[in-house]
Structures are given as structure tokens and as C-alpha cells.
UniProtKB/TrEMBL annotation:
Name the UniProt record assigns to this protein: Acyl dehydratase
Domain MaoC-like: 29-143
Upper classification of the organism: Bacteria, Pseudomonadati, Bacteroidota, Flavobacteriia, Flavobacteriales
Domain of life: Bacteria
UniProt-listed PANTHER family: BETA-METHYLMALYL-COA DEHYDRATASE, MONOAMINE OXIDASE-RELATED
Organism name: Chryseobacterium arachidis
Record InterPro entries: HotDog_dom_sf, MaoC-like_dom, MCH/BMMD
Amino acid sequence: MENSKTQESAFNPEDFSIVPARTFDELTVGEVFRAPSRTLTDAHASAFQTVSCDNHPIHYDAEYAKRYGHEAPVVHGLQVLAFTAPGATLLPHYFGNVFIAFLELSCHFLKEVHSGDTLYSSLTITDLTPQEDKGVVTTKVTVYNQKSELVLEGQHKYLLKR
């Protein structure tokens, strides 16, 4: 009993991590960080519509969408982009306390996404640019659907301490 009390008091939440943190210099070009797949539902689309305040009928009116050549309401592009959030992967856990800022992002929307589609996103380190006591990590971001179609591609840049 005494031994378990000693072990409990030795616990430090600051030492609790999902993966070991790494420094900028320990990252490598080509590393891939995947997010769990997710099937979008009407509830996801409705929740995003509420949060974004985007009330264009292309996102919720099936007849309107069909009238303009879409098979179904189109999921908000920004909602698809959200699937590339670094926090959807383990990447920020690897950054640990060296993370300074999310510097920029860009993307191209390549295919429509609809409720019922399953999305697979990943971030691949494509460049590591040292800058004295800091470094910029560039990642290519991709989102595929269940048909193996690339629906979004783009880039993120993060600033880390070295």
C-alpha cells in the first residue's frame, strides 16, 4: 500500500504525453501523419452550417443542388479543409512545447464532397527550413474520399522553436 502512494505522488501531468515530443531537428522530410477516417453525415453538415453561418442552399437544399448540376447538397469546402487540421493527427503531439505558430495554409478543392462520403486526410512533411533558433515545417495536406479520389490538396506551414 505504501509503495502505490509513492508511485501516485510521483505522477507529473507535464510528463504525460501520447507520443514522445521531438525537436525540429528530429523531424524528417517525407514523414506522414494521418488522421482517422471519418464519414460525414447530415448532422456534421448541419452543425458546420450553424457554426459558419453559411446559409447558401447549395449546402442543404437537395432540389436546389440538383437544379445546378450537383447530385446532392455539397459539404462546405471549409468543413473539408478542417479535416486537415494538424490536431486531427498526432503531429502537434510530436511538436510538443516547441510549437510557436500555425503560419499559413492554402488548398485547392478538387471534387465535391457529400453527406455519406468517408474522408481520409494526411499531412506529409515536404520541407524543413531552419532559421537560427526557429524552423519552418511545411506539409502537403491531402484529403481523399472512399472512391480514392483526391478531393482536396494544399499546404500548411508551422513555426517551431529549435
